[in-house]
Amino acid sequence: MLFEDVTRTLLRCVKNVFSMRDTPVPDSPHGQGASNAPHMDEETHNWPIPDQFVTEFDLLKYSYQATPLPLFHDGHIVEPSMANEVMNGAIVEAHFRIHQWRIQQFDSFQATVEGIVILRPAPRHHTSAYKRPHPKTTGNNEPEVKKTRHNAEASSSKI
User: Fold this and answer.
1) What is the pLDDT of residue 125?
2) How many Cα atoms occupy the beta-carbon half-sphere of 96 within 13 Å?
3) pLDDT at 13
4) 16-56 confidence digits (pLDDT tens)
5) Residue 2: which residues within 8 A CB-CB, separation 6 or more?
6) pLDDT for position 141
7) How far are the Cα atoms of 17, 94, 96, 108, 122 from residue 73, in angstroms, in the given order?
8) Ranges of the chain with pLDDT below 50
9) pLDDT for position 11
10) Facing residues of 102 across strands?
11) DSSP assignments along the chain, one per residue
């Protein structure tokens, strides 16, 4: 899909992370022990899932299998849990297949991502240990006012 940004035209590609299995994997220990039963693949079994979605994922993984995005950096595949972090701001080379349909006078296109190679990683932003903290606030959420000679009260040394 093409969309306009403030600076340029961008291409957005989407890839399904899970695809339906040809034959569902039995979800009971008895069914998994059968000699001709399909087995869970390692990719789907070890797929990184946030704790809040584990229950839902356990219901889906017997009918769907993980098909991770083939993302490479320096000739090595990037683990799915690191994909967003590695791709954010990086310059990449995308390999995809384009399907085109013509129905009457209307053209329709579909792009399938085949692989992504990271050419240049995003610049890293290091936080400095020498940064100053925010000014301390008083109870009414206003910054503490430092005394200057303009707002200082006059004092006297008279007794």
Assistant:
1) 67
2) 18
3) 66
4) 888 898 888 887 665 566 667 777 888 888 888 888 998 89
5) 9, 10, 11, 12
6) 58
7) 19, 12, 17, 32, 12
8) 137
9) 67
10) 107
11) -EEE-SSSEEE-----SEEE-SSPPP-SHHHHTSTT-----HHHHT----GGGHHHHHHHTTTEEE----EEETTEEPPGGGHHHHHTT-EEEEEEEEEEEEETTEEEEEEEEEEEEEEEPPPP-PPPTTPPPPPPB-TTS-BPPPP-TTTPPP-----
Instruction: Give the type of residue at 21.
Output: R
CA atoms within 13 A on the CB side of 97: 4
Q: 101 is written with which tokens?
A: 């349909």
pTM of the entire predicted model = 0.56
Asked whether the beta carbons of 69 and 15 are under 8 A apart, the reply is: yes
d(CA 102, CA 41): 38
